[in-house]
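hey
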């Protein structure tokens, strides 16, 4: 019952704060445009403007505080609720007005609505003029859904404006274009389904670590071969390259992943209309390229792409959601580079900025996945630094996030393993056995209990039951057994060894050398 009530409370708060969230996603240009839009239709100060200004200045949503700041004693909560609902719609109208000449879908809607208005007034030639403009724009920006709609409307108008002799020829041309349009849409939908399948697999399972998982990736990838690649739309081509990037990255073919991810960025650079309409897709493509470059150890090239992402922060269409995406891509990849290079102090310098960004963007689309990866990266750096309490603090954030929304299994699993190691370092030996059982159960349930993980968990469970004087012997045996296992390349590439650096942690425990120094020597 308690869990249910928490869920209900969360949903209520979520509904109440939608206006606040919308205002917080607006950039300076959008806010300025809305104020002008509001002033155009409402002379002087009004309740909508006051509510907008009060919410805009607040950092967190607090309904009683906002109501008191409005300075209207007679305004009851019911009236405030209506006012918020109306302002929400009002802002959306203002944003549409602001973007309708630059955002292609809005511009198409505007041209089509003008054409419709003229048509119902019997002004068929003028209506056709606007529809022709919409037709040309839809072709240019490859908006095939709108194009299909426009072509249907054109047939209706041509029947009113063309003579019998010219009508058939004109309609036949439109029918041919409609058939092409339908095929393009079918391809886009198929590529979208394939992308969703491989993205879901990667999000839940991560990189291919066994034959069964590789077969699942192969099955999705091979479905591309059944689709003709001739004359793809930009959207279809983009989705195809995205699927290929995830596939090659997941199976460990980094050279091919690099090749296709660069092609994806180049494609979008060459088609600015797509980038303007789908800025988040462009950011995904850049992030893919950075991720692959980091995996290949090409850190300088990765830094160049990171700078490219950061430069988009100043673009005119970078609202707060886009700036949130820029934050998470830039900081998660920088953190990943510092983790890979063992640059502990450099990575920890970013922690205040990461905390500030998480707080700022938490309610503006910051993904659970990215939040989890940021938290795991910071926890790992604190662990290497020997600041175990700080490491546990960030690991607890992962537990909280996973409990609320669920995260990638491999991230959560390795966070739990790192938590076991951290408690061992803190001397919390009585906790180890229960933590090991829970982690073992979690990994086994999600098919992530591989040989290295299984060996480590058994050792950690044994350490929790063993006299401290005998622990060196257990760790020495583990070190020898792990060294033999790591001769298998598939195990050596496991995240637990390549990123958590379990072999170096063991060496640190057996030699008394700080793990931070051992990592610095290796990299």
């Amino acid at each position: 019952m308690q869990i249910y009530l928490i869920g209900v409370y969360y949903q209520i708060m979520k509904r109440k704060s939608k206006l606040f969230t919308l205002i917080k996603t607006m950039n300076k240009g959008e806010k300025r445009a809305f104020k002008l839009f509001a002033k155009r239709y409402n002379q002087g100060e009004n309740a909508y403007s006051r509510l907008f200004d009060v919410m805009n200045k607040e950092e967190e949503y607090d309904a009683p505080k906002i109501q008191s700041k409005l300075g209207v004693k007679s305004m009851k909560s019911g009236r405030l609720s209506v006012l918020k609902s109306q302002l929400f719609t009002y802002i959306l109208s203002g944003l549409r007005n602001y973007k309708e000449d630059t955002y292609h879908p809005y511009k198409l809607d505007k041209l089509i609505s003008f054409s419709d208005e003229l048509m119902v007034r019997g002004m068929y030639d003028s209506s056709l003029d606007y529809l022709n403009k919409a037709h040309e724009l839809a072709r240019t920006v490859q908006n095939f859904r709108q194009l299909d709609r426009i072509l249907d409307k054109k047939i209706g108008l041509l029947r009113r404006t063309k003579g019998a002799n010219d009508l058939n020829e004109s309609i036949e041309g439109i029918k041919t274009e409609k058939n092409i349009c339908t095929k393009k849409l079918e391809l886009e939908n198929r590529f979208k389904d394939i992308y969703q399948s491989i993205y879901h697999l990667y999000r839940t399972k991560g990189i291919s670590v066994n034959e069964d998982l590789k077969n699942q990736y192969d099955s999705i990838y091979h479905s591309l071969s059944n689709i003709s690649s001739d004359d793809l739309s930009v959207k279809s081509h983009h989705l195809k390259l995205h699927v290929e990037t995830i596939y090659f990255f997941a199976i460990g073919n980094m050279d091919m992943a690099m090749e296709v991810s660069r092609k994806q960025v180049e494609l979008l650079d060459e088609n600015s209309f797509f980038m303007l309409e789908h800025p988040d897709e462009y950011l995904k493509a850049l992030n893919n390229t950075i991720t692959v470059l980091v995996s290949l150890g090409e850190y300088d090239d990765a830094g160049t792409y990171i700078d490219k992402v950061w430069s988009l922060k100043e673009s005119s269409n970078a609202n707060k959601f886009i700036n949130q995406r820029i934050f998470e891509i830039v900081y998660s990849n920088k953190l990943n580079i510092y983790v890979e290079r063992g640059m502990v102090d450099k990575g920890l310098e970013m922690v205040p900025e990461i905390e500030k960004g998480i707080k700022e963007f938490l309610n503006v689309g910051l993904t659970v996945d990215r939040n989890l990866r940021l938290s795991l990266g910071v926890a790992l750096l604190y662990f290497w630094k020997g600041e175990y309490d700080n490491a546990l603090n960030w690991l607890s954030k992962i537990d909280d996030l996973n409990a609320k929304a669920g995260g990638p299994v491999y991230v959560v699993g390795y966070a739990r393993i790192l938590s076991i190691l951290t408690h061992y370092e803190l001397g919390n030996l009585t906790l180890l056995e229960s933590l090991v059982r829970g982690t073992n159960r979690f990994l086994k349930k999600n098919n992530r209990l591989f040989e290295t993980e299984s060996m480590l968990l058994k050792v950690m469970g044994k350490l929790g039951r063993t006299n401290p004087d005998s622990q060196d012997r257990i760790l020495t045996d583990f070190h020898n057994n792990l060294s033999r296992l790591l001769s298998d390349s598939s195990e050596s590439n496991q995240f637990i060894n390549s990123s958590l650096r379990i072999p170096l942690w063991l060496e640190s425990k057996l030699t008394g050398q700080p793990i931070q120094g051992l990592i610095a020597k290796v990299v």
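The mean pLDDT is 85. The CA atoms of residues 304 and 464 lie 46 Å apart.
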